[in-house]
């Protein structure tokens, strides 16, 4: 029962690890054709990145999955040393090296309501807007935020990005100036801060906020690699 | 956009037919997670035939064994959006995937079966993994 794929490639739709030198890619194998390997919903890790070896990264990826960085990636088959299912890295309870799900995944209801930042972003200080921040703003969007904050003479507030139910595709983006609230994930940009509530962060991770000026410009626009459907106006999406 | 309800109704019934508690709102999810005693497993359901089509019977088989979690619940990804988002928030900082299964003990995540450990596998293999996890933690 359910929706099925129409292909005979045994790796089609399977989450795989593609090793290419010092880089490992983890994503769903969509196609292997014409000397290329097409992966969807892809994360990648380089040896030593974030202080982890690729093996350590793959062990965690096998246990929990990955946060995708790319919607689609086309790799040259010549550059890929190895292509295996990610499941081969999964350690079952009782196997050597198997550990319980790590404490960083621990979130109680009280913690979610009182909302200190999740362990993976565990800091009481604002995050810096680096490439690893959960959301990004283009220069145009950041400039517009700074301009609006200045024009509106809004002190002590930042830009709140959120997701709520509704719209023709199921979820809608919300953009507003607001105070920081308990439990917010805070990302510091030059001249302002962005506030994300923890629930919205699940849907906003990987999103880039852009801004288009002018009469034909659409204003603030969200580019969301996680969206599977986006309505024509770009205001509503689903995952 | 969610699939028509009449299309997913059988996928819901496949779980509720053996006593799985459906959590369809964020409030129901909060109430489920508020009880931190004992063990619980939550299946994030999906319309995907090659994964969820095996996950559901696997769960049915595994919870039919003597050693099993006290409580069994499900949220439906892509259908009950707020309930799924809330469950993912409370399960912990793990990447969203569906189908997937989270085993909790005393309110803490102790074992997680992500999509890639379900896709392309038969129900018996998945059930064996669940049974092994239940033996370890329940």
Number of E-state strands of chain A = 15
Query: Would you give the CATH topology of chain B?
Result: Glutaredoxin
Q: Strand share of the residues of chain A?
A: 35-45%
Structural class by secondary-structure content of chain A: alpha+beta
According to DSSP, the number of beta strands of chain B is: 5
Give me the number of helical elements of chain A: 4
The tally of structural domains of chain B comes to 1
Helix content of chain A: 10-25%
| CATH architecture identity of the largest domain in chain A | Sandwich
Query: What is the molecular shape of chain B?
Result: globular
The major sheet of chain B is characterized as:
5 strands, mixed
Domain count of chain A: 2
Overall average pLDDT of chain A: 75
- Give the full name of the CATH homologous superfamily of chain B: Glutaredoxin
Can you walk through the features of this model?
The complex is a heterodimer of chains A (239) and B (138). Chain A is α+β, with helices and mostly antiparallel strands and 239 residues long. Chain A folds into 2 domains: 15-89, SH3 type barrels, CATH 2.30.30; 109-238, Sandwich (Hypothetical Protein Aq_1857, Chain: A). Chain A has 4 helices and 15 strands. In chain A, the strands form 3 sheets. Chain A has a 7-stranded mixed sheet. In chain A, a hairpin with a 5-residue loop joins strand 14 and strand 15 (236-238). Chain A starts with 14 loop residues before the first strand and ends with a strand. Chain B has one domain (5-137): Glutaredoxin (3-Layer(aba) Sandwich), CATH 3.40.30. In chain B, a hairpin with a 2-residue loop joins strand 4 and strand 5 (108-113). At the A-B interface, helix 1 and helix 4 of A face helix 1, helix 2, helix 3, helix 4 and strand 5 of B.
Give the arrangement of secondary structure elements.
The complex is a heterodimer of chains A (239) and B (138).
Chain A: E1 15-20, E2 23-33, E3 36-46, H1 54-64, E4 70-76, E5 82-85, H2 109-114, E6 127-128, E7 135-137, H3 139-151, E8 158-165, E9 171-178, E10 185-189, E11 192-196, H4 198-204, E12 207-212, E13 219-223, E14 229-230, E15 236-238
Parallel strand pairs in A: 6-10, 7-12, 8-11
Antiparallel strand pairs in A: 1-2, 1-5, 2-3, 3-4, 8-9, 9-15, 10-11, 12-13, 14-15
Chain B: H1 5-16, E1 21-22, H2 26-34, E2 39-45, H3 52-63, E3 71-76, H4 81-91, E4 100-105, E5 108-113, H5 123-137
Parallel strand pairs in B: 1-3, 2-3
Antiparallel strand pairs in B: 2-4, 4-5
Helix pairs in contact in B: 2-4, 3-5
